[in-house]
């Protein structure tokens, strides 16, 4: 498991794993889209708009997962002095921002026909918007410091302080009365969703994970190369 | 005993500095009132509308005008080397941030306390609500001081984009705004909401010396 903390081992592992991940992302995405558009049933209330779920839910999960990964690597970088954590922080932040943006846009496209508005000031929606702004601040901080050592540590501290928002995003639907529905799949009891919708959702989730991994591998390798040649 | 003497001399120095730069604090307060005028001109002088949204306006403008003076939080002491001298005198970085946070609370945020009654007259807020506004402001402004300490210490080495510091304070002050405006508008919930606000204060006060002390140390090491 050394490729999780060591840049050299990560490079070797990434060369080995990149092509399978790329191919499986293409295959999973095409299968998932076929399932989502043709093979999954309409909802009895929402009709065909329920198909937005197959983009909305995986991107929301991945936005949270990306931030959680950044938090873990910030702890690793600050407490255990593993510089690979800072590389991950710099490389992965724009991916999380894009997933959050996809989640917000698809959510508002889903909200217009179902709720009647593009946007409500609901706890879940507001906290996801704050998550998006936190991602943007991380990206801007990465761009605006000149000293690299100060920059990466300050960004890691900011990621740790901003991780307060993660449990708020996750539990906002349980703590407050929101228009957004509570969790149907990621809860302790049995998921209250039909298998005919669950299967395409899981396929799409894995497709999103694979796409995220492809971009992350490319960005992390670029970051390692630019650090080796002291470009930043 | 020695550390107490040092603390007293620290606050005496802060007092002298803030007294000589009193026009800066006054400028903050003038900014606050001018923004209230602009708000009223843009909404229209209807009494009902103003008194229904008055609390929100007061809190928003307090937040905005407290972020104006963030640049001076650590920057002056950092540039003329006073932070390093304080550290060499036996204060740890975390302790320096606690002292500076209290000094910012006393000398920058508390003068706004005097301007709240005038603002409540201008915005037609009922008298019994002003007490709730006071109590929420005392706790909330201390949270704002802690957040200001974190963000301004993060941006000490940031030469290009200081506005980021204000954005950091504003994005983390969302819960403060929610709960402190809620205190005034929902009066029967006073105890529960002020407990939540106090809990937020304790969390931020615990994070503050750790985060901003580490940032100060980084900035001094790499300057």
Secondary-structure map:
The complex is a heterodimer of chains A (232) and B (223).
Chain A: H1 7-39, H2 53-79, H3 84-115, H4 123-144, H5 148-162, H6 165-175, H7 195-228
Chain B: H1 2-20, H2 22-43, H3 47-68, H4 75-79, H5 82-88, H6 93-109, H7 111-122, H8 127-154, H9 163-172, H10 174-185, H11 190-221
Helix pairs in contact in B: 2-3, 2-7, 3-7, 3-8, 3-9, 3-10, 6-8, 6-11, 7-8, 8-9, 8-10, 8-11, 10-11
Brief overview:
Chain A is mostly helical. Chain A contains seven helices and no strands.
Major sheet attributes of chain B: none
Give me the number of helical elements of chain A: 7
Shape of chain B: globular
Number of domains of chain A: 1
Proportion in helices of chain A: over 70%
Largest interface: A-B, 24 and 21 residues
- How far is the first residue's CA from the last residue's CA of chain A? 28 Å
Order of helices and strands of chain A: HHHHHHH
Number of domains of chain B: 1
How would you portray this structure in words?
The complex is a heterodimer of chains A (232) and B (223). Chain A contains 7 helices and no strands. With 232 residues, chain A is mainly alpha-helical. In chain A, α1 packs antiparallel against α7 and α2 packs parallel to α7. The radius of gyration of chain A is 19 Å and the shape is globular. The mean pLDDT of chain A is 88. Chain B has one domain. Chain B is built from 11 helices and no strands. The model of chain B has no long low-confidence stretch (mean pLDDT 87).
């Amino acid at each position: 498991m050394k490729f999780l903390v060591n840049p050299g081992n990560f490079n070797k592992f990434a060369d080995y794993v990149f092509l399978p991940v790329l191919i499986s992302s293409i295959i999973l995405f095409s299968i998932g889209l076929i399932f989502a558009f043709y093979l999954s049933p309409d909802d009895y209330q929402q009709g065909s708009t329920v198909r937005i779920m197959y983009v909305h839910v995986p991107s929301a999960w991945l936005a949270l997962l990306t931030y959680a990964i950044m938090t873990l690597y910030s702890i690793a970088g600050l407490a255990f002095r593993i510089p690979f954590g800072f590389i991950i922080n710099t490389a992965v932040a724009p991916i999380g921002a894009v997933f959050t943006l996809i989640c917000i846009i698809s959510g508002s496209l889903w909200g217009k026909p179902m709720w009647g508005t593009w946007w409500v000031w609901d706890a879940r929606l507001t906290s996801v918007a704050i998550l998006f702004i936190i991602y943007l601040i991380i990206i801007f901080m990465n761009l605006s410091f000149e000293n690299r050592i100060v920059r990466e540590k300050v960004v890691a501290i900011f990621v740790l302080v901003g991780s307060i928002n993660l449990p708020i995003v996750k539990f906002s639907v349980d703590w407050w009365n929101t228009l957004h529905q509570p969790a149907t799949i990621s809860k302790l009891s049995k998921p209250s969703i039909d298998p005919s919708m669950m299967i395409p959702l899981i396929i799409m989730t894995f497709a999103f994970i694979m796409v995220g991994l492809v971009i992350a591998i490319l960005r992390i390798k670029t970051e390692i190369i630019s650090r080796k040649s002291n470009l930043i | 005993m020695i550390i107490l003497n040092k603390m007293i001399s620290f606050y005496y120095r802060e007092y002298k500095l803030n007294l000589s730069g009193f026009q800066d604090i006054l400028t903050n307060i003038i900014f606050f009132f001018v923004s209230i005028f602009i708000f009223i001109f843009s909404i229209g002088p209807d009494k009902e509308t103003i008194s229904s949204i008055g609390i929100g306006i007061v809190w928003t403008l307090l937040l905005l005008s407290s972020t104006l003076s963030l640049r001076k939080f650590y920057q002056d002491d950092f540039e003329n080397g006073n932070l390093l001298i304080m550290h060499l005198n036996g204060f740890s970085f975390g302790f320096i941030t606690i002292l500076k946070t209290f000094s910012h609370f006393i000398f920058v945020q508390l003068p706004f306390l005097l301007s709240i009654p005038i603002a409540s007259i201008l915005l037609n807020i009922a008298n019994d609500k002003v007490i709730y506004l006071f109590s929420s402001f005392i706790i909330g402004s201390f949270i704002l001081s802690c957040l200001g300490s974190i963000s301004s210490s993060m941006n000490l080495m940031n030469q290009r984009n200081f506005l980021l510091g204000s954005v950091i304070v504003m994005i983390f002050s969302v819960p403060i705004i929610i709960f402190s405006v809620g205190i005034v508008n929902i009066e029967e919930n006073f105890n529960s909401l002020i407990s939540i606000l106090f809990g937020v204060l304790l969390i931020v006060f615990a994070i503050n010396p750790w985060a901003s002390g580490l940032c100060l140390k980084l900035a001094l090491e790499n300057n």
